[in-house]
Amino acid sequence: MRSVKIAVFASGRGSNYEAIYEAIQAKRLDATVVAVVCDKPEAQVIQTAMAHGIKVLSIVPNTYTNKKAYEQAILTFLHEQQVEFIVLAGYMRLIGETLLQAFPRRIVNIHPSLLPYFKGKDAIGQAIVANAKVTGVTVHYVDEGMDTGEIIAQEGLMLNPTWNRETIERYVHRIEHQLYPETLQKIFRKLGKIG
Ligand code: GAR
Fold it and tell me: Is the CB of 110 within 6 Å of ligand 1?
């Protein structure tokens, strides 16, 4: 199958970026990471991606006059790298219309809850505060809303009341690192058939 050229957007550690990169190396995912976009200059993901020899755009939003200008700069970079598909992996920022219009149904996100529950920031913290018995992970298409796009895949996690936040995060990440590459592979297979 043809390898889809993807850009991974991240703001933090980048463990999901790494899981995707490893799935590609292991030939479980027919894609090539041609770019990483990061809005936090101190984020760990920048070092990791550079060590992999990936082109990284480290970009600071508040150095642009508005969101449109910020996303236009990203778009220029993505076009230079011939990006076909955007994978959000812990990118803590709403995608605006400039990128949405340039990549219709070509942007996906992973979120650490069973959407529509616990949308937005700190979904794991929200689950803890709500005393939830179950949470999980969702992969969804990105639209103009906050974690509102069409759901593609979900996996639940029963919460043991003795678990602390760190333990929950570890289990959530374990699910994410498997679910995201698997789901991307399914999406890319379908894309390949459509052409
Ligand atoms: C992941 O758990 C991801 O689901 C979450 O950020 C974490 C990033 O971890 N994303 C969101 O909360 C988006 N609303 P990572 O940097 O180690 O991949």
Answer: yes
